[in-house]
Specification:
Keywords: Hydrolase, Purine metabolism. The protein is mainly beta. Helix content is about 5%, strand content about 40%.
Length: about 110
């Protein structure tokens, strides 16, 4: 299975550059971590092999907003998702602002 993410900051209308993230499995084992690149993408996730199961992709939104000099409400955005088809590509995007975030099953 391949995994990717893309974070967009709707308050600035730009990719969320430098947003820290961590991928863990259902046992809490760290599988990958990094920061989003200049396009708001998480390049470290492409190297992770994951099978069927439940995973958590946690984004350090508090650190991201503090670095930008912005006061936000959510210190962390956690996206919990389940992989049922390990052969499929799974894209887990994050749309964020200082006072909200959303996600969806991307392609």
């Amino acid at each position: 299975m391949s995994l990717s993410t893309h974070a967009l900051d709707t308050a600035t209308g730009t990719p969320a550059v430098g947003l820290g993230y961590r991928l863990t499995d259902s046992a809490g084992t760290d599988l990958a971590s990094g920061v989003t690149d200049v396009d708001g993408r998480g390049p470290d996730l492409a190297q992770v092999e994951v099978g069927a199961g439940v995973y958590r992709l946690a984004f350090d939104t508090g650190g991201y907003h503090r670095a930008a000099g912005v006061s936000g409400f959510y210190p962390e955005a956690v996206v919990c998702f389940e992989v049922t088809d390990p052969a499929a590509h799974h894209h887990v995007p994050l749309i964020l602002s200082p006072f909200g975030y959303s996600t969806y099953r991307g392609s």
